[in-house]
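Sequence in, structure out.
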Amino acid sequence: MSSPRLPPGQSDPGADEFGAAREMKRQRLRSALLRLSPGQLVAITLAVLTAIAVIAIRYLPWWVLLAIALGSFLALRYGIPFLLKQLLMLPFKAKGQALAGATIQLHSLKPAPFPSANDSEQHYWDAADLARYQEMNWYFLDVSIVPPLNRSEGFRLWEPGELLLIPASVRGNSLESLECEEVAIHDYRVFDGAFGADVQGKYDGAKRLLLHLGAKPGVRRVVFRYYLERFGEVDLLG
């Protein structure tokens, strides 16, 4: 006996509930994976591979075992380094979600004096920093960081001290692209009626900041990076 057809444009409530439950399970699984440390993920992966090896030795013929051994060698040679890199990136991806899709509101951009070694509570610099700083033009950037309203599950708190500025010409979101020598945030202040030191450290919503930043003369446009997330372009000459 065939099930009755629904009128056009009307969805099956049972199917909708099943789909919603399945999506909820996916989100819970994803959140659980993001909470695991790289060491825990490696341990789980090794446990699964060990279980597969035990089953294979007990039940499979020799030629299948030989193929598995060859596949394992290739996986160790090429797959494991890639997998480890992805595992190491998981914490960065998870934390960066707090500002995924964020925007900025630019209030002002003004020339700034060369920083003093004693004017920063956030950054301790050495001779290498001094040599790099002397090559830079310096600015005060008054800007608000605005996270999206419809953020999903996961990390919601973000830390101004973890913000970076990189040249807009730098593409990609790899860990290597975070190593920027052309732009530096020497210090910052947070706005709470007036600009002052960052006492709270972490924020859930939008926050206005005053950044003391330097950029080498060839850098005109910069973008914000928060771990692996990229947002908010600023024209330093505009």
